[in-house]
Design brief:
This is GTPase Der. The chain is α/β, with parallel strands linked by helices and 483 residues long. The chain has helices at 15-23, 68-82, 98-110, 127-132, 152-164, 177-182, 211-219, 265-280, 296-307, 325-339, 359-373, 379-392, 430-443, 472-482, and strands at residues 4-8, 41-47, 50-56, 85-91, 114-119, 142-143, 199-204, 237-243, 246-252, 283-289, 311-317, 348-350, 405-412, 417-422, 452-457. It folds into three domains: 4-173, Rossmann fold (3-Layer(aba) Sandwich), CATH 3.40.50; 179-373, 3-Layer(aba) Sandwich (Rossmann fold); 379-457, K homology (KH) domain (GMP Synthetase, Chain A, domain 3), CATH 3.30.300. The radius of gyration is 29 Å and the shape is elongated.
């Protein structure tokens, strides 16, 4: 079992920058604006031979009420309680502030062990702040620079005694975030799922649709920051959960507004992080608000997931607030089929993230969509099916040229992708391609999942064979046979 390291400190001292350095990739958003991080973000940290879990936290502030800063502080305090060691960062260029003193007292009382580090200590500007850190009474501080990698050897030496208390702290953890991300690339291709590998889900939607509340309901705890304010989540937060016996890794993403309304740099980074989560996901849950469903931005988000080749499940949230449920259900299904024909047959589940109603149906829909997304059909079945389709509805003959569909095969899964070899692929109209795709959905039980169908020119198997050398004797024998 490896240890857990929580990085804590007031806003804008460089916690996310250090988190990114320890996990070896830019997972957390970083900006000069203070208070970028709001949720707890976990990652697999690596420092020398040590392997551990590292938690990036929101900046600790003095607020203790139910305001947004107060709720952020409560989440950070929770991380302090669950961590084996806390790395308390101060800004060496600013020195020790009154807030740092308050937080130092808090950590002294609640944290099992505290390592003090003065970040941004490179150059002369950080020298005075480094020496001021001694007054906090938390032991000898470390002089580090998360941005430039200075002082990482000192941090390693400080963590080694912690690691000695854990038997397997130097072993790589069983489920590594790198392995999860690398196993599915942005084109949707991937190998067969290894045993125990979690299904990756991205929960996307407009701001204030209830994405974080839904993820908390699945987890059964208040793991993510929620509230009435729109746009609380700023970056894609990944959490792991065993949901009724099936392992999942769920990405909670920032709300996506219309592109014209996204002006601030930080919001652009948040949206970009959400798009990355969609590309790495296997199933995308598009969360709608039942009171204002299928706005243009919802349609764009669903279309984005389809174009990225991800399995899609539509979840309609706040169903507990709807009074005329039967009428609303019929209305939503009609609008879904009309506005999103490219996702025809995709499951639409009514849920209430606040009460937890409908989560069992949502889980079943996600597992089914993931199974279909990984489905493979044998070439023999495909060609028998293709022969039947051609017999019932032969392709058109543009300009009097008959198009022959000769052979069909599935070239990959995730999403299911098929190639049909034919005589004149450029002459096959789009509506006939849609006819074949809809037939595949119907006859092979693949509702909703993106299907890719490509037409290729079929090759003549005899074109490279040499003509036989027919002699006069052969011609004479042929005439005698005819006679």
């Amino acid at each position: 079992m490896s240890f857990t390291l929580a990085i804590v400190g007031r806003p804008n001292v460089g916690k996310s920058t250090l988190f990114n350095r320890l996990v070896g990739k830019r997972l957390a958003l970083v900006d000069d604006q203070p208070g970028v991080t709001r949720d707890l973000r976990e990652g697999s940290g690596r420092l020398g031979p040590l392997r551990f879990t590292v938690i990036d936290t929101a900046g600790l502030e003095e607020a203790t009420d139910e305001s947004l800063p107060g709720r952020m502080r409560a989440l950070t305090e929770r991380a302090v309680d669950m961590a084996d060691v806390c790395l308390f960062l101060i800004d060496a260029r600013v020195g020790v502030t009154p807030t740092d003193r308050i937080l130092g007292e808090l950590l002294r009382k609640r944290a099992p062990q505290v390592i003090l580090a003065a970040n941004k200590a490179e150059g002369r500007k950080g020298e005075q702040g480094f020496y001021d850190a001694y007054e906090l009474g938390l032991g000898e501080p470390l002089a580090i620079s998360a941005e430039h990698g200075i002082g990482m050897d000192d941090l390693l030496r400080a963590l080694e005694p912690v690691a000695e208390r854990f038997e397997d702290a130097t072993a790589i953890v069983d489920v590594d975030l790198d392995e999860i991300d690398d196993s599915v690339n942005e084109e949707g291709e991937g190998a067969i799922l290894p045993p125990g590998r979690p299904i990756q889900i991205a929960v996307v939607g407009r701001p204030n649709a209830g994405k974080s509340t839904l993820v908390n309901a699945i987890l059964g705890e208040d793991r993510l920051l929620t509230g009435p304010e729109a746009g609380i989540t700023r970056d894609a937060i990944a959490v792991s959960v065993d949901w009724d016996g099936v392992p999942f890794r769920i990405f909670d993403t920032a709300g996506m507004r219309k592109k014209a309304k996204v002006q601030e740099k930080l919001e652009k980074l948040s949206v970009s992080d959400g798009l990355r989560a969609v590309r790495f996901a296997e199933v995308v849950v598009v969360l709608l608000d039942v009171q204002i469903p299928f706005e243009s931005q919802d349609l764009r988000i669903a279309d984005l997931a389809e174009r990225e080749g991800r399995a899609v499940v539509v979840a309609v949230n706040k169903w507990d607030l709807e009074e005329e449920k039967s009428h609303k259900l019929n209305e939503l299904r009609e609008a879904f089929g009309r506005l999103l024909p490219q996702l025809r047959g995709a499951p639409m589940v009514m849920v209430s993230a606040l009460t937890g109603k409908g989560l069992d149906r949502l889980r079943a829909a996600i597992v089914k969509a993931h199974s279909v997304w990984n489905a493979r059909i044998s070439t023999a079945r495909l060609n028998r099916w293709l022969a039947g389709q051609i017999a019932d509805h032969p392709p058109p003959a543009p300009g009097g040229r008959r198009i022959r569909l000769r052979y069909m095969t599935q070239v990959k899964t995730r999403p299911p992708t098929f190639v049909v070899f034919c005589s004149h692929p450029e002459g096959v109209p789009d509506d006939y391609k849609r006819f074949l795709v809809n037939g595949l959905r119907r006859d092979f039980d693949m509702p909703g999942t993106p299907i890719r169908l490509y037409l290729r020119a079929g090759e003549n198997p005899y074109k490279d064979r040499k003509k036989p050398n027919v002699t006069a004797l052969d011609k004479h024998k042929a005439r005698r046979v005819r006679d």
